[in-house]
Sequence to fold (78 residues):
Amino acid sequence: MKELIIPPKLNEGDKVAFISISGGRAGDEDMLPRYLLGKRRFEKIFNVKVVETPHALKGSSSAVMFSVRRRRQFFMAE
Fold:
C-alpha cells in the first residue's frame, strides 16, 4: 500500500484554490450566494486568501455545452 502524502499545514496568509465539481454548480445563480458565503467564512476562519480555478464558477450550463461538444467530437472521430 502506498504511503499517504500529508500536505503542509495552512498558515495565515496562504493562498488556496477552490475548485468545482465537473457539473460547475457553484457558479449557478441559485448556488452562487451560498458559495460566496462559504468562501467568506473559510477566509475569515482560516485567515487565508481563496481563489477560484478558471472554470469553477462557469455554471452548469457551461458543463452541458462542453459535454455536447465533446460527444460530437467523439462521434465524428469514428
Q: What stands out?
A: The longest helix spans residues 60-77. The radius of gyration is 17 Å.
